[in-house]
Specification:
By secondary structure, the protein is mainly alpha-helical. α4 packs antiparallel against α5 and α6 crosses α8. It is 82% helix and 0% strand. The protein has two domains: 114 residues, Four Helix Bundle (Hemerythrin (Met), subunit A), CATH 1.20.120; 102 residues, Up-down Bundle (Four Helix Bundle (Hemerythrin (Met), subunit A)), CATH 1.20.120. It has eight helices and no strands. The N terminus is likely disordered.
């Protein structure tokens, strides 16, 4: 009898465990839901970045960007409702998971409020902060994504381009090790698309093109070719954006 009771108890436990496993949302689905929101943010960001370069506020573009942000906010509200109390297993031990979702929500509010007030630059800065929250959420839960590695590389590329204008080639040389290390991290990161997906080859080609450009930049910096370094840095962010867009 005891053996039978133990057996039945084991069956009940296994059944309950299976239900929990089935109920737990898959990481892949969470990632896709987040990516859908981030694509909207990416499109908004591209518009608001162009707005910041103009002497006067481009109201039609402003309105388009606000519409994209509104869609992104609605997507994020759905993500919060679905996952805040029931995260994927990979986030289950993160005591800050619910707060992270709220932080991203707040960043979206900051982007929208500033842009609605005509403060395009402040909205763009809030976008950079918000994108960093996605990266932090992944990194602090031990998750590695090519998109995050490219985000870090792009930030360093922007810094190096600014340093070239203020400190010249000597200053850029100090940043080359970081650029090359972050390039290597991109190469080593898991591919964002499975083998056979047409996006996989396009992403691979874009990353290899980016890698060669950074090698050329390093050689030009070593040779002291200021013109080549300046030209390479001016094109570098666009080269990073190509695989970044494909990864998302």
């Amino acid at each position: 009898m005891k053996a039978l009771i133990a057996y039945l108890a084991a069956l009940v436990f296994c059944f309950a465990w299976c239900l929990q496993v089935q109920a737990a949302p898959a990481l892949a689905q969470f990632d896709e839901d987040v990516a859908r929101c981030r694509r909207l943010i990416r499109d908004y960001c591209a518009i608001v970045q162009e707005i910041t370069k103009q002497p006067e506020l481009d109201q039609p573009r402003q309105q388009h960007a606000l519409e994209l942000l509104g869609s992104a906010s609605r997507e994020w509200q759905q993500i919060k409702a679905r996952y805040a109390a029931d995260p994927p297993a990979e986030y289950a031990r993160d005591p800050q998971f619910k707060a992270r979702l709220k932080d991203i929500d707040n960043a979206l509010d900051d982007m929208e409020r500033n842009l609605a007030q005509g403060q395009a630059r402040r909205s763009f800065q809030a976008c950079g902060f918000g994108c960093g929250l996605f990266v932090k959420m992944h990194q602090e839960n031990g998750l590695a994504y090519a998109l995050d590695k490219l985000f870090a590389l792009r930030q360093t590329a922007k810094t190096a381009e600014s340093v070239m204008k203020t400190a010249g080639i000597a200053g850029v040389r100090e940043w080359m090790p970081a650029l090359m290390q972050q390039r290597d991290e991109v190469l080593l990161a898991p591919a964002p698309w499975p083998e056979g997906d047409e996006r996989s080859q396009a992403y691979r080609d874009a990353v290899l093109e980016l890698s060669r450009a950074i090698d050329d930049l390093a050689l030009a910096a070593s040779d002291g070719d200021a013109d080549q370094v300046s030209a390479g840095l001016q094109a570098l962010v666009a080269r990073v954006n190509k695989p970044y867009t494909l990864a998302l």
